[in-house]
Amino acid sequence: MKISPYIQELIAKAQKLGKTIVLPEGEDERVLEAAHIAAEQHIAKIIILGDENSIRSSFASHNWGMDGIVLINPAKSPKLSAYTDLLYNLRKAKGMTEEEAAKTALNANYFGTLMIKSGDADGMVSGANHSTADTVRPALQIIKSKHPERVVSSMFIMRSMAGQTYYLADCAINIAPSAKELADIAVSSAESVIQFGDKPRIAMLSYSTYGSGKGEAVDKVCEATRLAKEILKTPEYANLPIALDGELQADAALDSVVARKKAPASKVAGSANTLVFPNIEAGNIGYKLLQRLGGAEMYGPMLQGLNAPINDLSRGCSAEDIVGLIAITVLQTQN
Ligand SMILES: CC(C)(COP(=O)(O)OP(=O)(O)OC[C@H]1O[C@@H](n2cnc3c(N)ncnc32)[C@H](O)[C@@H]1OP(=O)(O)O)[C@@H](O)C(=O)NCCC(=O)NCCS
Fold first, then answer.
1. Quick one: 63 and 119 in the same domain?
2. Are 167 and 280 in the same domain?
3. CATH code of 76's domain
4. Which of 16, 55, 156, 224 supports an S-S bond with 300, CB 3.0-4.6 Å?
């Protein structure tokens, strides 16, 4: 397995934390290979959900050891009834019946999420065989936003061909964020970038720089910038090394020559490392163009703003991608 130097760096940090990650998709060979690597390299202790016999025979057929790996079949777990009660109590006000809770707790993504809620695991990586919505919904319903008044969002870590690291949000969760939600995304991104050991320099992206373009979409980004700056002045963030500015076009955000022309007063323009897109269309299209035409490596998307980390894989992911996301998830367990 070829693991990129950047992910190797994250693995080295994750190895020191001794966390437990649950992988709900034990039926998937890529997940099993990633589990084997993650446990063998002590990235995390691994819990795999699924049929124990078939997982064991898969491991045996590859001569993979099972040290650091625990197998759980949700249907046979002695904790199933406690998890079912927990789910029912959390969701009854939303109309969930006891019968529905019993059925839902057996779903591997819900079971894994309930393990985290119960303190039996620190994080979860899923999505090799599930849609984003199916992976993310249990997290939103059970783990919930760390700040109840703020939306949960997502972030990609991007390594450019030149070896620089950038952070991109929100390319995967909030479809049409309001100004307030965009501010939430920016603040969560600041927290994530700090978790990854970097100093956030956040550009609130638009098709306009400092009033050069007009329209409702520009007004939204200006308002989001104002709201984010307000949140960043509160005691929770005031002493952290966070710079944020907007509205900025991508060239003004990233290129110091353009920045000097378009936004000379900005402390972020020309050297942004964190790009907050105005909506999911811009973000999702933007990151895929960077990946496909720009040759950038993309890691994620990781969810941000949750009480505990749960991350979604792309269905086309490789075992290497899963190992990378396990390491990222371990790092996100740090407050
Ligand atoms: C993330 C997503 C799946 C959630 O949709 P959903 O499951 O229909 O969500 P619902 O509106 O039914 O909400 C379910 C719960 O999650 C909460 N929720 C939904 N989005 C949230 C967010 N961004 N932050 C915090 N909570 C959120 C809701 O408040 C609700 O909580 P409650 O049931 O306790 O009241 C949806 O926003 C989505 O499909 N996003 C785009 C995904 C996508 O296609 N990405 C591109 C490919 S990567």
1. yes
2. yes
3. 3.40.50.10950
4. 156
The strand pair at 69-72 and 45-49 is best described as parallel
185 and 107 in a single domain? The answer is no
CA distance 222 to 218: 6
303 in a structural domain: no
pLDDT of residue 2: 87
Tell me the helices (H) and strands (E) count for the chain, helix number first: 14, 11
pLDDT at residue 258 tops 90: yes
- Two tokens at 200? 């956030």
Domain limits for position 249: 153-297
Question: Measured from the CA of 151, which atom of ligand 1 is nearest?
Answer: 24
**pLDDT tens digits for 110-140?**
999 999 999 999 999 999 998 888 999 999 9
Domain total for the chain? 2
In terms of Cα–Cα distance, which of 5, 13, 65 is closest to 36? 65
Mutation test of ligand 1: which of 96, 104, 173 has the most ligand atoms closer than 8 Å to its C-beta? 173
Distance between Cα 140 and ligand 1 center (Å): 7
- Is residue 186's pLDDT more than 80? yes
d(C-alpha 246, C-alpha 284), whole Å: 20
Residue 101 falls within a domain, yes or no? yes
Summary mean pLDDT of the chain: 96
Pocket lining: 154 vs ligand 1, CB cutoff 6 Å: no
pLDDT on residue 164: 96
Residue 335 confidence class, pLDDT cut points 50, 70, 90: low
CA of 183 to the centre of ligand 1 (A): 18
In whole angstroms, what is the distance from residue 227 CA to residue 298 CA?
A: 29
Question: Cα angle vertex 311, ends 138, 330, to 5°?
Answer: 120
* Token pair recorded at residue 83: 């998890």
Question: What is the torsional sign of CA 323, 145, 127, 176?
Answer: negative
In this structure, the answer to whether residues 126 and 157 fall within a common structural domain is no
Based on the fold, state whether residues 127 and 226 are members of the same structural domain. Answer: no
> Is 110 found in the same domain as 227?
no
